[in-house]
């Protein structure tokens, strides 16, 4: 009574560059394969055919968060081990081929599969699904059934070669094709004693050439392999060769190795047996008009230069946020909010405001990457904590600069993606197909790191395509956007994808700007254990009393203007919003003094004319005023107050977890 789900993996074919990455052609091939299975006599009473592209798109809100969770729980090394399913050298992997095992693992849980029956070449990704259960705390693990992989028909082929049509018998082969292929097939009658070929392959060996077999085989005769796993596979089947009929494979192999059965008789019997099985398929594709049309199309595809056809595409599939109504027009100025943390700092807010200001008169968009936060394990991928962070961040931004924020459209990534998930994820896949994995990882990521940031960087390019902006503001230098720096990599891959792909299909490359606010870090500590947000940064939800207490502890060496937090604070929150800043001093110290520029502050402080105590007093007053403004904004909105409490509770929970 079990239901068998036949998963027609059209999106996976796209990731693996089948049919030149043409999804329409991949769809036709999928329809052809369904006809093959029907014609081969499959009992369809408990079989359901499901197309990956349709099911995933119709349930995008369930599928993609699961995929992102899989991605965050494994490192690059573990995912590379799964790439045997694509037969690729690790060093030549595209970034899209990293998505393949993540999605295949996700399929198991999306389809609620109790049993996964796939070829032994896919055992590593199936075991990944069982490992995910341990990592995610899921009680019931899927049962993995790995079936045998047929040898290629030529010597040394662990499996068929897609580039060699004579390496296997295909379902559409004519009787003459079958006879020719089998007659030319490798057919040894002596077992090898040297099994070096079955040893674990060195790192540089193509994963597709790794042994595909569950049992040791020192003969590796593809003709006998076909007899055992095709001709004699059905219950009660027999094999006839040289006028003698066999009912079990052991007898066939023994007769051949002893010389009782000749190679010619073995191949003749195999040819006859295969043609008998294929004849109903041939009749179906001859007599059924739909099947006949599909076969003709598939045969034509084999003749075409699919790579060339793919490169001539006129339109790039992408999310279009203007068309889906998420933004009013293209050509805006985009800023991506920093990935979430349980303790958002005031520095984050001032950096965002500085980057938004770089947009001038353009329409400004603040993009909240909540799904990227999940795959990068920000806030331990806690959905509520991520949402709370964004709520608190937006409240702080509106309190700090209400005029600027009134002109800003806020777009949440998950909402944007779900407005057209199919085109979005196809664009992610296509971006991944364009770049080598090493390009996306950049100089700072290692194979031992989580694979999540790789996915996040592909999503960042797809986000930009969906927004179609005139400019983007990224952090300066190698700003940290994903836990591994990332700003330089983002700038590189966004720029390259436009230069190498998108400009040719009519999209305009945005200006890639870099910008941050002045640093308002309060302490410089080289030893990581000594760093603490309690006195190193101002936090978004600091009470106003912390404006004074933290400034009191802030570094402020007399005459040192290379690192002087009070000057940075005074400039950011004093001169940044006012024309002048007044510093109160006693008459003995020269009386009150007014400054109009940062240079004036630095000049007097460096010379000793401005005392650290007086400077700190002014900076403290500014911080008390600033934090009071942010706190008032939070208290005025019940949702923000709730979000702030949720972040505090999450931070406390994570602190206990670390202990």
Q: What can you see in these coordinates?
A:
The chain is an alpha/beta fold and 659 residues long. Helices cover 50% and strands 8% of the residues. It contains 28 helices and 13 strands. The strands form five sheets. The chain has a five-stranded parallel β-sheet, sandwiched between helices. Strands 1-2 form a two-stranded parallel ribbon. α24 (545-553) packs antiparallel against α27. The chain is elongated.
Helicity, in percent? 40-55%
Integer average pLDDT: 90
The beta-strand count equals: 13
- What is the makeup of the main sheet? 5 strands, parallel
Uncertain runs: 196-209, 308-312
Give the CA-CA distance, first to last residue: 49 Å
Q: How many alpha or pi helices?
A: 28
Rounded to the nearest angstrom, the radius of gyration is 32 Å
Order of strands, main sheet, comes to 9-8-7-10-11
Task: Please tell me what the overall shape is.
Answer: elongated
Class from helix and strand fractions: alpha/beta
Strand content: 5-15%
What's the arrangement of secondary structure elements?
Blueprint: E1 4-8, H1 10-15, H2 23-39, E2 47-51, H3 52-58, H4 60-72, H5 76-81, H6 96-110, E3 115-119, H7 123-136, E4 143-147, H8 175-184, H9 222-231, E5 239-241, E6 244-246, H10 249-258, H11 263-287, H12 289-303, H13 306-311, E7 333-336, H14 346-357, E8 364-368, H15 370-375, H16 383-400, H17 402-405, E9 408-412, H18 413-418, H19 421-434, H20 437-441, H21 452-467, E10 471-474, H22 487-502, E11 511-514, H23 533-536, H24 545-553, H25 565-575, E12 581-583, E13 593-595, H26 598-607, H27 612-635, H28 638-658
Helix pairs in contact: 2-12, 3-4, 4-6, 6-7, 8-11, 9-11, 11-12, 14-16, 16-27, 16-28, 19-21, 21-22, 24-27, 25-27
């Amino acid at each position: 009574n079990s239901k068998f789900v036949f998963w027609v993996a059209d999106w996976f074919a796209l990731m693996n560059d089948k049919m030149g990455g043409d999804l329409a052609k991949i769809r036709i091939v999928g329809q052809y394969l369904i006809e093959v299975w029907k014609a081969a006599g499959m009992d369809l009473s408990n079989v359901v055919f499901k197309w990956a592209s349709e099911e995933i798109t119709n349930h995008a809100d369930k599928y993609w968060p699961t995929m992102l969770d899989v991605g965050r729980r494994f490192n690059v090394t573990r995912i590379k081990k799964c790439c045997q399913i694509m037969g690729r050298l690790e060093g030549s992997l595209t970034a899209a081929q990293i998505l393949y095992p993540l999605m295949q693992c996700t399929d198991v849980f999306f389809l609620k599969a109790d049993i996964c029956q796939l070829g032994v070449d896919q055992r590593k990704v199936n075991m990944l699904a069982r490992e995910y259960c341990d990592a995610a705390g899921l009680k019931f693990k899927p049962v993995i059934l790995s079936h045998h992989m047929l040898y290629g028909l030529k010597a040394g082929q662990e499996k068929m070669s897609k580039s060699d049509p004579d390496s296997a018998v295909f379902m559409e082969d004519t009787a003459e094709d079958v006879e020719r292929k089998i007659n030319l097939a490798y057919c040894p009658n002596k077992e090898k004693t040297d099994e070096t070929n079955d040893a674990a392959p060195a790192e540089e060996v193509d994963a597709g050439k790794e042994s595909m077999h569950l049992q040791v085989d020192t003969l590796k005769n593809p003709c006998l392999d076909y007899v055992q796993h095709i001709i004699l596979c059905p219950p009660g089947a027999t094999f006839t060769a040289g006028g003698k009929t066999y009912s079990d494979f052991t007898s066939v192999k023994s007769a051949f190795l002893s010389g009782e059965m000749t190679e010619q008789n073995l191949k003749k019997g195999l040819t006859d047996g295969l043609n008998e099985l294929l004849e109903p398929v041939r009749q179906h594709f001859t007599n059924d008009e739909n099947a006949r049309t599909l076969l003709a199309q598939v045969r034509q595809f084999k003749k075409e230069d699919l790579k060339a056809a793919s490169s001539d595409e006129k339109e790039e599939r992408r999310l279009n946020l203007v068309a889906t109504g998420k933004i009013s027009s293209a050509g805006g100025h985009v800023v991506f909010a920093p990935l979430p943390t349980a303790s958002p700092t005031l520095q984050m807010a001032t950096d965002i405001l500085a980057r938004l200001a770089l947009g001038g008169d353009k329409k400004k968009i603040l993009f909240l990457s909540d799904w990227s936060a999940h795959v990068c394990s920000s806030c331990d991928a806690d959905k509520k904590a991520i949402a709370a962070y964004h709520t608190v961040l937006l409240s702080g931004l509106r309190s700090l600069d209400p005029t600027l924020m009134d002109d800003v459209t806020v777009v949440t990534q998950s909402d944007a993606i779900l407005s057209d998930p199919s085109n979005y994820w196809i664009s992610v896949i296509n971006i991944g197909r364009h770049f080598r994995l090493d390009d996306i990882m950049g100089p700072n990521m290692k194979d031992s790191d989580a694979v999540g940031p790789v996915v996040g960087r592909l999503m960042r390019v797809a986000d930009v395509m969906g927004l179609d902006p005139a400019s983007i503001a990224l952090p300066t230098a190698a700003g940290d956007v994903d836990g591994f720096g990332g700003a330089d990599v983002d700038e590189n891959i966004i720029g390259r994808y436009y230069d190498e792909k998108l400009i040719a299909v009519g999209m305009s490359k945005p200006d890639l700007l870099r910008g941050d606010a002045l640093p308002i870090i309060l302490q410089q500590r080289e030893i990581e254990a000594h760093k603490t947000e309690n006195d190193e940064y101002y936090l978004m939800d600091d009470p106003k009393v912390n404006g004074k207490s933290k400034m009191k502890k802030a570094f402020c060496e007399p005459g040192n203007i290379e690192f002087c937090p009070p000057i940075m604070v005074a400039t950011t929150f004093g001169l940044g919003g006012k024309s002048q800043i007044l510093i109160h001093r006693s008459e003995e110290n020269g009386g009150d003094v007014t400054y109009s520029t940062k240079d004036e502050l630095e000049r007097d402080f460096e010379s000793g004319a401005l005392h650290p105590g007086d400077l700190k007093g002014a900076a403290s007053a500014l911080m008390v005023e600033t934090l009071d403004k942010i706190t008032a904004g939070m208290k005025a909105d019940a949702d923000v107050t709730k979000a702030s409490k949720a972040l505090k509770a999450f931070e406390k929970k994570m602190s206990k977890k670390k202990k």
